[in-house]
Amino acid sequence: MPGVTQSLLERRCQGTLNDYVTAIAWAVNGKRLAIASAAGEVAFLDTETWVPVSLRGGNGQSIDCLGFSPDGRYLAAGGQTGEVMIWAIDRPPDQITTLHIPRTWIDSLTWSPTRNELAFSLGRHVQVWAADEAAVVATLPFETSSVLDLAWHPQGEHLAVSGHQGVKIWRRADWFADPEIRETAAASLAIAFSPDGQYLASGNLDRTMLVWAFDNPFPWEMRGFPGKVRHVAWSSVTVGQAPLLAAASMEAAVTWTKVSDAIDGWDAQVLDLHRERVNDIAFEPSTTLLASAAEDGWLCLWANGEQPVQILEGAPKGFTGLAWSPNGQWLAAGGQNGEWLVWTKSNRGRGFGRG
Amino acid sequence: MVTTDIPNSVPVTVLTGYLGAGKTTLLNRILTYEHGKKLAVIVNEFGEVGIDNQLVIDADEEIFEMNNGCICCTVRGDLIRIIGNLMKRRDKFDHLVIETTGLADPAPVIQTFFVDEDMQGKLSLDAVVTVVDAKHIHDHWEAEEAQEQIAFADVILLNKTDLVSEVELAELESRIRGMNAMAKVYRTRDAAVEMESILGVNAFSLDRALEIDPDFLGEDAHEHDETVGSIALVEPGAVSGAKLNGWLSHLLQTQGPDIFRMKGILNLAGEEQRFVFQGVHMLFDGRPDRPWKPGETRKNELVFIGRNLNADRFREDFRACLV
């Protein structure tokens, strides 16, 4: 592979769960990691010991989402049992509460970046649970469909919810007020705020991506994707006029650079290396190094969001997801067969070959 | 496009029927039948169908919504999300049954399997099975949903036959065949039907592009008192591919929302192979099929099911495509 010669990351540790890895989450300090599987397992690791602790054995019902609270004190998990489980992160972690929502799949959850408040989807609704009060403080009706994705604004004052034909944005200051609506022609599958809070991107079922300036309902529309846009990710680094943006669609990852305010003011760079579907993408915190995890069993690293610099392997049947630790020290990824792997920045300078 | 040629793809049965027609009874039969298959069932109206070792998912929402025929808008993420989650398990199911609400138009569900890349790769549409209440269908003939459920079906169960006379039944069956000349019709009580008649039917396979009721083809004097009906064209001769393309694209652009389903076998000019195609609303799928056999009469057979279709106009326009 011409150009793919560096060894930025090297493998630190790995393990296996009993089925498809559905979710990976890091605590904000980058010292704790949780991994969930379609068999219903939740594993917890501390980067001091790297010894996996099973928080939940598999009962066959998938756990689909995980997240650490912003202060690192709580871990939440949700899934097909219709439960949201909360652990207090002590040594060892202790499950302190379970919210029961019968006959509902909990397939997305996300903690506020600024408070111990957890938003999770339950069918056509989103609930916000405040850990400090141990109470549900808001129930938000999405109405037009079930909820497909959730994202908090980085300042924690707004919650965006995506689904059929749009994104609805509620204000935390008044959960009962009508949400602002950002319309999409088809279903909005994946949403993300830029880390500076200036932009919202939505990957859509109709092979488009829309980007809104946060205070403007009129979007830029990016077309020409080979399939539905299943993931969107922002770098915190501004390239051109806005943070660098990436989208995943079929075998392609595409990075977008804003060059002007014009209707066609974003330039695309197609990252063409994967041979099968790209299942997840994310930028290394504070850099423009993009990681793309795909069905072909490759996890590719792209310098400056365009240049392939390393291919990581370890999930022969395909990678299902990935997560950078917020301090940028670690990269974790999961696979179809339950494999999980963690890589770290190489200390050995720049080598050659694959990781 | 939807094909059944994908290895290891999971077949999908879409179960429709007006409220009270007997869908739940049929679903219970499917779930309790010893077919040795692991089923996943997505239901919209949660009933008492919890069976050990079978998966019943309550969609609990109107997944299926029509929106002016725009496919992007009709195919919603909900169904894809649910199935995507199901497909992550290593211990996957062997067959998926989707029960639509009694008031739903089945098209968006079918279209989801045509247009979504994840669905296309891992699932194949097996058949649309519609349960019709032989006694009470007369109360809602006028409802568009009831007509569409019949029009989209590959298999129709004429259920509750014990509640109507043979004369009424014959009349009803003839009326239904006038609307949908492609579907197999079975008369049932308590939705009792052989499982082979409804599961593993392969109705969307292009290898089985056309099975028109021969009686329908024979009759020219069909009563077309419904707005929903079938048109069958059987024409000898060879078709110009370019002209046919022109005609079909024009047809789908102008009448796409009114054309529910179409299937056909064509004798394309200059080709040694049969050409088979099918379509659901504006979505179209076609490819060359087996070669014409020596001595086989090369002809074109097409069936269209839709609303307010003008048979004479169709025949005329098709003939204009002949070389």
TrEMBL record, chain A:
PANTHER family: F-BOX AND WD REPEAT DOMAIN CONTAINING 7, WD40 REPEAT PROTEIN. Keywords: Repeat, WD repeat. The lineage of its organism: Bacteria, Bacillati, Cyanobacteriota, Cyanophyceae, Nodosilineales. InterPro entries: WD40/YVTN_repeat-like_dom_sf, WD40_repeat_dom_sf, WD40_rpt. SUPFAM superfamilies: WD40 repeat-like. WD repeats lie at residues 56-87, 181-212, 271-302. This is WD40 repeat domain-containing protein. Signal peptide: none annotated. Pfam families: WD40.
TrEMBL record, chain B:
GO terms for molecular function: hydrolase activity; nucleotide binding. It catalyses: GTP + H2O = GDP + phosphate + H(+). The keyword Chaperone applies. One of its GO terms (cellular component) is cytoplasm. Pfam families: cobW, CobW_C. Keywords: Chaperone, Hydrolase, Nucleotide-binding. Residues 228-322 form the CobW C-terminal domain. Signal peptide: none annotated. PANTHER family: COBW DOMAIN-CONTAINING PROTEIN, COBW-RELATED. Belongs to the SIMIBI class G3E GTPase family. ZNG1 subfamily. This is GTP-binding protein. It comes from Vasconcelosia minhoensis LEGE 07310.
